[in-house]
């Protein structure tokens, strides 16, 4: 009898499958928030150095109001004028403010996401899409308040300052010092509401899409590894979804943080004035450069993040 195959009734199969899932080999793995913070910071720093020129062009186009009239005819013209006036280095004006902020921004984002998702995964280690959306939303709000709003305000002021006849900011620390001296700490928190809305929706959309795609790819095995190229492809799709979903909020945020922010009484007032004076198309200014940057940004960040976590799992035991 021992050599014959053992019959398992349909009523016994669920228990057998449950036992197999509970076996040590199938034990779900979770990313420690400490590893997420470190890996996120590294990924954020590398990514911004690669993609900043597209961020610069996007910001210039969003600040280029129709009423002035427009200074730039499009993406190519913006790049051409910037290089002609300031050289290639001009495309990196304001990089320091983003570099100093991108590391803690990504660290906060992934740290908060992993902390919350670890508590919301089911017994098999799976995080469903709705919970992924909530975790992403929370991560986006956290990074907006702690890092993104002051960082973005300084960055936008730096880039806008370059269009002046006599730029007044000589560097990152000088710029921060001048902003705080003349406007107080509040000067680095312009457009907070718009930033929270933008970052919250950004990360909610991105993590929702990433979670959905990962769950689809992994099927019933939450510990199934994903090739970096596939991770990058999923990240690019998530990035594109967030661009089409919240570029209007990004335009409003940029206007609220520019040197002409005093023209707007509030986030709502800014939105109303853009609609009144420039029309609905103005809410999608900078979409093309933002689409290129964000897709590349999200793809790079997720690839680097996942690979750094793999390395940390080897050298940093947290189980």
From TrEMBL:
Pfam families: Mito_carr
Keywords tagged on the record: Antiport, Membrane, Mitochondrion, Mitochondrion inner membrane, Repeat, Transmembrane, Transmembrane helix, Transport
A Gene Ontology molecular function term of the record: antiporter activity
Major localisation: mitochondrion
Catalyzed reactions per annotation: D-threo-isocitrate(in) + citrate(out) = D-threo-isocitrate(out) + citrate(in); cis-aconitate(in) + citrate(out) = cis-aconitate(out) + citrate(in); trans-aconitate(in) + citrate(out) = trans-aconitate(out) + citrate(in); phosphoenolpyruvate(in) + citrate(out) = phosphoenolpyruvate(out) + citrate(in)
InterPro entries: MCP, MCP_dom_sf, MCP_transmembrane, TXTP-like
GO CC terms: mitochondrial inner membrane
PROSITE patterns recorded: SOLCAR (PS50920)
Membrane topology: Multi-pass membrane protein
Database matches in Gene3D superfamilies: Mitochondrial carrier domain
Statement: the UniProt record of this protein carries the keyword Transcription: no
Function: Mitochondrial electroneutral antiporter that exports citrate from the mitochondria into the cytosol in exchange for malate. Also able to mediate the exchange of citrate for isocitrate, phosphoenolpyruvate, cis-aconitate and to a lesser extent trans-aconitate, maleate and succinate. In the cytoplasm, citrate plays important roles in fatty acid and sterol synthesis, regulation of glycolysis, protein acetylation, and other physiopathological processes.
Family: Belongs to the mitochondrial carrier (TC 2.A.29) family.
Name listed for the protein in its UniProt record: Tricarboxylate transport protein B, mitochondrial
């Amino acid at each position: 009898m021992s050599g014959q195959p053992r019959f398992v009734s349909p009523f016994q199969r669920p228990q057998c499958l449950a036992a197999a899932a509970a076996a040590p080999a199938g034990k779900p793995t979770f990313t420690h928030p400490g590893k997420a913070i470190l890996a996120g910071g590294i990924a954020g720093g590398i990514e911004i150095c690669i993609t900043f020129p597209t961020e610069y062009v996007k910001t210039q186009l969003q600040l280029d109001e129709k009423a002035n009239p427009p200074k730039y005819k499009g993406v190519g013209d913006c790049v051409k004028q910037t290089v002609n006036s300031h050289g290639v280095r001009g495309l990196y004006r304001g990089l320091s403010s983003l570099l100093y902020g991108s590391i803690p921004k990504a660290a906060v984002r992934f740290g908060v996401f992993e902390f919350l998702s670890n508590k919301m995964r089911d017994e098999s280690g799976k995080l469903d899409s709705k919970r992924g959306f909530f975790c992403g939303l929370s991560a986006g709000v956290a990074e907006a308040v702690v890092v993104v709003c002051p960082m973005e305000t300084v960055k936008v002021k730096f880039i806008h300052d370059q269009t002046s006849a006599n730029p007044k900011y000589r560097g990152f620390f000088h710029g921060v010092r001048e902003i705080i001296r003349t406007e107080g700490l509040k000067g680095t928190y312009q457009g907070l509401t718009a930033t929270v809305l933008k970052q919250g929706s950004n990360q909610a959309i991105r993590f929702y899409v990433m979670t959905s795609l990962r769950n689809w790819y992994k099927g019933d095995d939450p510990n199934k590894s994903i090739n970096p190229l596939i991770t990058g492809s999923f990240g690019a799709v998530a990035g594109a979804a967030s661009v089409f979903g919240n570029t209007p909020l990004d335009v409003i945020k940029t206007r609220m943080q520019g040197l002409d922010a005093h023209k707007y009484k509030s986030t709502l007032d800014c939105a109303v004035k853009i609609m009144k004076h420039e029309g609905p198309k103005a809410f999608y200014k900078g979409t093309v450069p933002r689409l290129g940057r964000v897709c590349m940004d999200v793809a790079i960040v997720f690839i680097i993040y996942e690979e750094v976590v793999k390395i940390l799992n080897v050298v940093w035991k947290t189980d």
